[in-house]
């Protein structure tokens, strides 16, 4: 049974359907980009078609398709990081999950990362293009973050929390924390996702740190990205 999941975005409770509507809009944009015909498809069929297309392209095909976007986004990210001087903004939302274990979900996520199990990672959000674990244990990500005009590539190191500025909540004992860098090592932020049990379910306090010079629109849109991907991951984990 799929748990009830409500998102809290900018202090306002959002039903699952609202998050899925955002996901549908992004799916349409990505399907056009990857030349996938999604007409007359259900949401589940569109997700399956997008995942199949990404896996068929493979990492090299994805990078070639997004070559210009990745080149421009890397330049912009370096400049933004430099101008920000280490200062950051948070893009955050909460998920209230009606049933399940915070500890079990975090372990599911960590295990998928350790194994480099890419399909469930990609399937969680249309804007995910590559989410793969390298031989060094770091997670390589190619995605469109929030309302960014271009897809970007970065590496998340979940064994490194240096520089993370999100305040740790002592009531949340389960955490997924890591730094994010460009391939050349330039720091572009990080993630600090915190979880706690609440009754029969749990709360996920999700936070991504961006350089402070990132546009407010992108920060606001990424809240919906977070709500979409983690809601889908939680549903997938609950069914496994």
Molecular shape: globular
CATH H-tier superfamily: START domain
Rg over C-alpha atoms, rounded to the nearest angstrom? 17 Å
Question: What is the helix fraction of residues, given as a range?
Answer: 40-55%
Order of helices and strands: EEHHHEHHEEEEEEH
Number of strands: 9
State the secondary-structure class.
alpha+beta
What is the domain total for the residues?
Answer: 1
Low-confidence stretches: none
The CATH top-level class label: Alpha Beta
Strand fraction: 25-35%
Distance between the termini: 11 Å
The tally of helices reads 6
What's the rounded overall pLDDT mean?
96
- Main sheet: strands, sense, barrel: 9 strands, antiparallel
- Overall CATH architecture: 2-Layer Sandwich
CATH fold-level topology: Alpha-D-Glucose-1,6-Bisphosphate, Chain A, domain 4
Strand line-up of the largest beta sheet: 2-1-3-9-8-7-6-5-4
Description:
The protein has six helices and nine strands, in the order E-E-H-H-H-E-H-H-E-E-E-E-E-E-H. It has helices spanning 16-33, 43-65, 67-84, 102-115, 118-123, 216-239, and strands at 5-9, 12-14, 88-97, 128-133, 139-143, 152-157, 174-181, 187-198, 201-211. A nine-stranded antiparallel β-sheet has the order 2-1-3-9-8-7-6-5-4, sandwiched between helices. 38% of the residues are buried. The mean pLDDT is 96.
Give the topology.
Elements: E1 5-9, E2 12-14, H1 16-33, H2 43-65, H3 67-84, E3 88-97, H4 102-115, H5 118-123, E4 128-133, E5 139-143, E6 152-157, E7 174-181, E8 187-198, E9 201-211, H6 216-239
Antiparallel strand pairs: 1-2, 1-3, 3-9, 4-5, 5-6, 6-7, 7-8, 8-9
Helix pairs in contact: 1-2, 1-6
């Amino acid at each position: 049974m799929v748990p009830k999941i409500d998102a809290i975005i900018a202090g306002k409770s959002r039903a699952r359907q609202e998050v899925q509507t955002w996901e549908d809009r992004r799916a349409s944009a990505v399907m056009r980009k990857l030349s996938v015909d999604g007409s007359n498809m259900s949401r589940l069929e569109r997700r399956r078609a997008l995942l199949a297309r990404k896996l068929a392209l493979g990492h090299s095909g994805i990078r070639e398709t997004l070559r210009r976007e990745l080149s421009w986004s890397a330049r912009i990210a370096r400049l933004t990081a430099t101008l920000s001087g280490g200062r950051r903004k948070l893009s955050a939302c909460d998920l209230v999950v009606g049933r399940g274990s915070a500890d079990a979900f975090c372990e599911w996520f960590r295990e998928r990362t350790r194994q480099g199990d890419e399909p469930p990672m990609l399937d969680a959000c249309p804007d995910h293009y590559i989410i793969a674990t390298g031989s060094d244990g770091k997670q390589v990500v190619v995605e469109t973050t929030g309302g960014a005009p271009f897809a970007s590539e970065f590496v998340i190191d979940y064994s490194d929390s240096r520089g993370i500025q999100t305040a740790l909540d002592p009531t949340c004992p389960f955490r997924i924390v890591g730094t994010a860098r460009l391939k050349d090592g330039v720091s572009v932020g990080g993630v600090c996702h915190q979880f706690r049990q609440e009754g029969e379910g749990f709360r996920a306090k999700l936070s991504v740190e961006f350089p402070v010079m990132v546009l407010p629109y992108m920060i606001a849109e990424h809240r919906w990205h977070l709500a979409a991907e983690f809601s889908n991951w939680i549903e997938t984990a609950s069914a496994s």
